[in-house]
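I am writing to request your help with a piece of structural work I have in hand. I am sending you one protein, given as its amino acid sequence and as whole-number tokens for its backbone shapes. Kindly check, if you would, that the fold set down in the tokens agrees with what the sequence suggests. You will find the record immediately after this paragraph:
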Amino acid sequence: MTQTTGRLFDGLGRLMTDAIGVADSAKREIDTIVKNQAERILGDLDLVKREEFEAVRELARNARSEAEALSARVTALEEKIARLNTPSSPE
């Protein structure tokens, strides 16, 4: 009986090991399918990547700074032109 019980447990052990291997393979396959579907769906949504967004945001920030600097220069030049066009008081 002991030998039969030992073979039974050996058989159950092999069966469990094989079941775990099949489950692991199925998990990997499902992960791959889900990942491919997610990438396809995200690709269809036409989303931008984080790096692209950050690059465009930096360009916008630089453009805003440059526009503010140019606006200040224009204001200063307009003031200078206004002073030059104002007739000076006769002496």
Remarks:
- The helical segments are 2-44, 50-85.
- The chain has two domains: 1-47, 48-85.
